[in-house]
Structures are given as C-alpha cells and as structure tokens.
Amino acid sequence: MHANKYAEPVTALGLMSGTSLDGVDIALIETDGHAVQRFGPVGERPFTLQERDLLRGALADAQTLTDRHARPGRLAEAEAMITDAYAETIRDFLAGRENEPVAVVGVHGQTVLHRPKDRLTVQLIDADALARRCGLTVVHDLRGADVAAGGQGAPLVPVFHQALARAAGLEPPVAVVNVGGVANVTWIGESDALMAFDTGPGNALLDDWVYRHTGEPMDRDGALAASGAVDERALAALEAGLSDYLAQQPPKSLDRLDLSTGEALEGLSLEDGAATLSSFTARCVASARDHLPEAPKSWIVCGGGARNPELLRALTDALPGDLTTADALGWRGDFIEAQAFAFLAARSLQGMPITFPGTTGVPRPLTGGSVTQPERAA
C-alpha cells in the first residue's frame, strides 16, 4: 500500500472484452488512481459460439468504416449483444454484493477496427444503455482522445502495470507481456519510466487456426502445439510477412486484422501449425527487445497466453532473464485488463493522464474517456 496523496479512493468496476473474442471479464478494485488500495472479486462471462461468430462477422463488416459512430451490417447487432453481455455481467456480479458501493464502471467495449494512422478506432458498446441498465456512472471510449490527438490509442494498460510493479517492489527494469489476441509489452524503468507497444500476434492467429480446423475456440493448455513441431520454413514466412512492423520503432500498435498467416502454413498439420504459431508469437515478443531502452531483469507474462504451457515454454526459450507469470506474483493474470479499466476509469474521473508519449506516442500525457451518468443517459 502507498500513502494516498491523491483523491479519496473509490470502488470501481472494470469490464474488458478483448481481441481473443473469448468473453467479458469483470473485476472490482478500490483505487485512488495512483495505487490500488484493495483488490476485490473477479468474474467472467464467456461468449457463446454464436456470439463469437457474430463478432467475427462484425470484424469483417468494420473494415470499410470511415465513421467511428456508424454501425452498418452486423455491427449494430453486435453492439447490442456486447451491451447486453456487459449489463448481464454487471448484474450477476453485483448480485448479493449490495455492500459494495460502486462509484464508477470503466468499460472497454469490443474493438472491431483500430486504424490510428487514420485517427480511427472503433469499440462497440452503447454506454447510454449500459448506464441506464446498471444505474451506475460509466466511463467509456478510453482510446478516442488519444487517437484524435495523434496517438496510437494502444496499449492502454501500461499505467496500471506500472502501479502493480511499484506495489510489488520489483527491481527495474521490468517488462510485462500481455498475451491477448494481440500481444503487447510494457517496459518499466527507473523512476517509473514507461515504454509500451504491441509486439505482434498473441493468441489471435493460433485461435483462428484452431477454430478453422476444429471449431474449438483455442488450443487448450497448448496441447496441440505440444504435440506438433515448428516448421522453420513457415516460421520464416510468417516473420517476413510482419517484418516491416517488427522493425518499426515504437510507438506502434496493431489491429487484430493486421495479422494474417497468408499461405505460410499451407500444407501443415493442425499440430505443426499450432506449434509454429506459438513460436511465432514468442519470436515477435523477443524481437521487442531491440526497441527497449534497457534489457529487462525480469519478464512477467499475463493474459490468456499465460495459461498456455507451450507458449510459456516458447517465451522462456526466446527471452533472456527471469520469466514468471502474473499469477506467480499474486496478481490475477487473467483479469489484469478488467482491473486496469477500473483503474483507468478512476483516473479519468480525476482528470489524471491515462496515456503517455512513451506508451502511445501522444504528444503529452493525456487523460481520456467519456463519462455517462445514468440519469443523463438518453
């Protein structure tokens, strides 16, 4: 715990649905926007197969968007589904927890398009409807102001990673690797120095490969990859296809649909493809070292990828220094992003910055988020 020289702590809920399309995570924390005074309970609401299919369709329909508020094709249906899922998750989570006086809900929504070079980022969530249904203040659109100011709009979680590392007393420099659909790294140096960027694929390509061949949403426990072999020719082709991005200096970020296997995996078995894609994710994370100010003394892995033993093995082989998981440090690795959106909502309410030149390339530390009060929701 840290002495609170900021505002009084508030109880905040955070909700996150990421590019892995696996479901909605929810977490409760008490925070002053600088440190976390208390970590509360967490929960999840998985998407059904039909909901995942709808989101995949919305991702495809979003590729022609030029107006971040337009909802053509399946986007309107997907936004209604996401809003319903968030509202149900909040209702079920708070049932029996009337003693938790929630002050604010921070929501991410579902990203369907991220084109910062065009100053365009689109997350599906009807914040007015959500505020009305849950009767709580909702902070949303946490990427919009950053992108409008010329930033990448991603990653958003580094300032929370910084708070976690500070509270844990970790010796800098430290790198936190979040392996969601897209993977990103947060580098934390002396005096809370921050750098962050997307490293390349996380689980997205692997999930898509497994879904296409089996109908299952993921390689559970890395079992498929563990029984396959890395195809070096295919791996080289995958790296060549992303070489321009990997060489690009930060700040930088990726859209999920920027990632493609092309024809690199043609002819590979399910298992060999899974092994090759796991290695590809690890290689991309390892290549991030070339852009960091100083080599990290330790690497902390969180997100869905931290539950994949084969991916962890590949990361251990690819990265020098100590590697551990967020859960091994006592963090809730699967729920860090949900906790982060609660944290960011508290910072937003106080006008504190949530993005920084070293994390998104925004010209100056910038606050963000739109606030919707339940009584003012249209």
UniProtKB/TrEMBL annotation:
Its EC number is 2.7.1.170. ATP binds at G18, T19, S20, L21, D22, G23, V24, D25. Residues 369-378 have a biased composition (Polar residues). Gene3D superfamilies: 3.30.420.40. Pathway: Amino-sugar metabolism; 1,6-anhydro-N-acetylmuramate degradation; Cell wall biogenesis; peptidoglycan recycling. Keywords: ATP-binding, Carbohydrate metabolism, Kinase, Nucleotide-binding, Transferase. Pfam families: AnmK (PF03702). GO terms for molecular function: ATP binding; kinase activity; phosphotransferase activity, alcohol group as acceptor. It is an enzyme of class 2 (transferase). GO terms for biological process: 1,6-anhydro-N-acetyl-beta-muramic acid catabolic process; amino sugar metabolic process; peptidoglycan turnover. The keyword ATP-binding applies. Transmembrane segments: none annotated. The keyword Kinase applies. Belongs to the anhydro-N-acetylmuramic acid kinase family. Catalyzes the specific phosphorylation of 1,6-anhydro-N-acetylmuramic acid (anhMurNAc) with the simultaneous cleavage of the 1,6-anhydro ring, generating MurNAc-6-P. Is required for the utilization of anhMurNAc either imported from the medium or derived from its own cell wall murein, and thus plays a role in cell wall recycling. This is Anhydro-N-acetylmuramic acid kinase.
